[in-house]
Specification:
single chain; about 220 residues; alpha/beta; Rossmann fold; 7-stranded mixed sheet; 7 strands; about 20% strand
């Protein structure tokens, strides 16, 4: 049995990036853990500026209220997917400010990943500040622990992984995409964001999840790692 730790910059990234694989690994008997870095509080503020937000009564709330909603949504998703609560870690870093809490994130992560076999993380050279900070936290924690034996599965949300074919893998999720879609619907707060809603719908028909696969010794040698 492998201990697999998924790093999710925001609630829902774990499912968009690796939801089907999470269910497949669990079905194989692997031990799945998920770290949620940020509390997602800035989603409406950020998407409103980008004109991606569907404005209505439910989106006229404070960032603190949205953070509380999103943390509660995680609980519903985890219960639905039947992931043990003890395997879930909420760092509750303010959304859009993960980099400001790098040292705290590294310290907390090290306690969780020290006996891990695989880390599933967002890609390097990422345009989203929280995704990039999450990559940096995960890899720095692994470096400080000298985790030379583990493998890194790098996922991309709204991006394509740039790596040689020898460093890519894809996992068939046709058996699991319906359940992942149903889980994503429990992140109800995100249904008011056009781009996210489209990503949810795409998950319903997605057949494969693709990852870049690397070792710690290869860090910095590839565009996305």
């Amino acid at each position: 049995m492998k201990k697999i730790v998924i790093f999710s910059p925001h609630p829902d990234d774990e499912l968009i990036g690796a939801g089907g694989s999470i269910l497949k690994w669990m079905n194989e008997g692997q031990e799945v853990h998920i770290i949620y870095l940020s509390d997602g509080r800035a989603a409406y503020t950020y998407e409103r500026k980008n004109k991606n937000l569907i404005e209505n009564k439910e989106t006229q709330i404070s960032q603190e209220e949205l953070a509380q909603i999103r943390m509660h949504e995680i609980d519903k998703v985890i219960e639905f997917l039947e992931i043990p609560k003890n395997n879930i870690y909420k760092f509750k870093i303010p959304d859009q400010k993960v980099r400001e809490f790098m040292q705290s994130g590294i310290k907390q992560s090290k306690k969780i990943i020290e006996d891990a076999d695989r880390l599933v993380i967002p890609s390097n050279n990422n345009p989203h500040v929280d995704h990039q900070a999450t990559f940096d936290i995960a890899t720095k924690a692994a470096e400080e622990l000298n985790l030379e034996q583990i493998d890194f599965y790098v996922y991309a949300v709204y991006l394509n992984i740039k790596a040689p074919k020898s460093h890519k893998t894809k996992i068939n999720i046709e058996t699991y995409n319906k359940k992942v879609y149903e889980a994503l619907q429990l992140y109800k707060s995100q249904n008011f964001i056009k781009t996210v809603n489209a990503a949810f719908e795409n998950k319903k028909k997605q057949k494969w999840e693709k990852f870049g696969v690397f070792s710690l010794s290869e860090l910095g040698n590839f565009y996305n790692f």
